[in-house]
Amino acid sequence: MSMFETMLTEGVVLAEALAPLQSSQAELLGRIRNDTLLSASLWVNVALAGLSVLLFVYMGRNVRSPRAKLIWGATLLIPLVSISSYLGLLSGLTVGLIEMPPGHALEGEAVLSQWGRYLTWALSTPLILLALGLLADVDIGDLFVVIAADIAMCLTGLAAALTTSSYAFRWAFYLISCSFFVVVLYALLAEWPVGAERAGTAEVFGTLRTLTVVLWLGYPIIWAVGVEGFALVQSVGVTSWGYSALDVLAKYVFAYILLRWVLDNQDTVERANTGAVRAETPADD
Asked: Fewest CB atoms within 10 A around its CB: which of 5, 39, 65, 106?
């Protein structure tokens, strides 16, 4: 067989292998388009993420402080990641039909899983924590541990969503994900506020911490009551709107509040980095 014939044969085999994937994506795209509630929950976020990017770029023209620029850059990436994520969901690339295991309320049914959301959260939530950590001037080691726990939380959440062999294993991964979440909550509620107090950013950090903690608690609750958990709410569209509404507040509103404060307080942000704020605080006897 000539080299040309070999390449032609391999090309045909590759095309045959990709055909089911392409067909599946086309079918999923059709399902999403035909579900007005689901489709709207995704397009709204694409629009708001795009507007947020434009707004944040415009706001960033006045950022001068190096540390403020770092916070601004991390925050700008949040809506950029969201645009990519929601386009992946809308196109059918990062969704799939998952057959629910025995014991699930929808046992044996093929449920549309938006598993791409977990990949988005694995990228966007560390950026949120990075911005908060920089704002509170936390130790780099502590920041690394919390971000690592956050990524583990998202990935084990993905495992819970994709496990179809056992209902018990779905909940086992869910509980593991929640245990990583506890690490993140402890840092936000107990450790990082101390750093924010020393850095002179306690007021805005407190506002953003409360917003983050309250909204992030909503995600595991939606998972538990939605189609992936107990299926008390069996509409994929309603579940998707729950996640999307949380994303709007936890990402775009959070980012705007943070950037607005940083723009008006760049000197405070920079002094926190140099330790000047700490130097102004009398040492304990």
From this structure: 5
